Amino acid sequence: MACRRVLALALLAGCATAQSVSPEDAPGATDGADGAAPDAAFLEDTDAPKAPADSAPMPTDGPPADSAPEEVTAPPTDATRACPTGQRPCGELCVDVAVDPRHCGSCGRACATGERCELGLCRVTCPSGQEPCVGADGASACVTLATDRAHCGRCGGACAAGQVCASGRCMNLCAGAQTACPAAAGGVSCVDLTVDARHCGMCGAACPAGERCLRGACALACPEGQTGCDGRCVTVATDEAHCGRCGNACPSPQRCALGLCRAPCVAPQVDCAGVCRDLQRDAANCGLCARACAAGERCASGRCEPDCPAGFTACGSACRNLLGDASNCGACGRACAAGERCSSGRCGGACPTGQTSCGGSCAALATDPSHCGACGSVCPTRANGAPTCALGVCGVSCRPGFGDCDRNATNGCEADTDTSLAHCGACGTACGALAGARPQCVAGRCQPVCDAGRADCDAVANNGCEVDLQSSATNCGACRRACLTGQSCVLGSCAAAASVLEPFDAGVWVYAPWRAVSGASGTRQASCAHDGATGLQDPGWAYRTDVTIGSAGQRLSSWVRLGSSARFYLGFGASASRAWSLVAASNTSSLLFQSNVSYGYTDVGSRAMTWTAGRWYRLEVTFGVAGAVTGKVYDSDGRTELASLSATLAGFTPGGVAVRAFGATCIDTIERR
Length: 673
Description:
By secondary structure, this protein is an all-beta fold. 3% of the residues lie in helices and 33% in strands. Strands 37, 39, 40, 42, 47, 48, 49 and 51 form an eight-stranded antiparallel beta sheet that branches.
């Protein structure tokens, strides 16, 4: 028996020498203090059969002590199993812990469903062309390294702002005002968000069928020369309901010409390209608008004919005195016989007293334009007038509607007294300036032409266009169109009266219900007042939730005066943890929409915008459905629209109001409509 025990120990020592197992790879090895060494079991005499405690003594009739030892084979264990190179024993199996998803990295460490084992680590199984990468939130996701801006070419290889990822490389793909947007066939394409109907205002914001993209907003696709207003295409140059711009209706009896509301023409004049003309006698518009008579002709009864002075008749292309022309005596082409003269339209003898025979005709040299001062001295034809002869000196007689206002006969009748502002109706009669209008001379009478958005509602010409149709509650958009009680007139439309949310005229900023988030609180200053006593300069992020803004049809506005390198954030949908904002940015010459999660800064739409430092602007956000918003910038008058930007805010819900500004920026009067 002792020999057998010695033999077994020798065999075990030989196995230990032939197969070395590192502590990290040995099955059952642990890092704790209580982990028993895997070889401890081999110290026990496992070859010799053991008898139970109550069994009979071992028989002694075996082979002699000096006989050959009996061959004994020990059953394999995790520590003694010989596994192929690269594998290790796990229970009854030999596995490659570098790739086996059931034993990934160590025995018993199984990967989750959808994961694979790679280099002993469980990783997400990704489709062909994608790789698993860990994002900022610590979660693993499948990304396309060829195009993903956050993982360009490798996991974590983020592209800089303004760059795109193409073929696994970050590059400045788009030039100028173009923006890189995902293409339908993969990759990216450079588009102009102000005109591209597939990406209007922001990537992926496609315009509906029948609409086009205009200045970053979808609008009705109208033929050349027309504009989409109220869902239909109109010619704003002539449409009296939309004169010059949508919604600008001309008050009765005015008409729309060249995009301006004008008084109607008085018969017999008609409108020719926005100017009243008499087609019966206007040589530039004879019989029809823009049909001009040739040089030396006049318009008579709507027909062009030689421009003959008084006492002369057009005979063919020449003016003849039928009372004294021997070749046209009494009628065109009726010639007197040789030696006869024409007197009072009849052929006869010698010339009467005061007249002289000139080529067979009797002429009064003191007054005859064909023989002015001497036989054959013809007075020249002058512009817009007929030649005259007085005391033997040539002059000009102006046609109706014209005047020789500079007293220079050589340039004829240079002033159109039907239309001239300096000589309206007569030389020296000027049309003066009028409130809310520009003067116009129509048929020789001064009449006001109202500025866009204004009207002459009292029909008194000399006080101009006294009504502002954009803001008058009794004449909102048109004369005598009154708003209902509780409404105000905003940009020519009746709407619920504005509610002032914050005038910045009282309290020490920041004060309830406002709450500060970060940065300096800002200061109230009289120099920052747009209206009221004071305005606010350079506040850090602050918000209030006692009011709610963001429902479809609502509008939020604020006045702002930017510094030369500044920004103002008009926040909405605000809470303690986030807001959205319309941003006026003079430091980047842009107008933006941003998502401000945790009051950070992520652009969701932008357009170029030039800001003038020290100039007041009115910013306004109009809310649509499903997160659709439109931001507009109005000039210092609060009515003239300068820029517009539309976007769709994913996950937007109505909420409170927030503000932030820097760069010597003043804000004042936040309103809700």
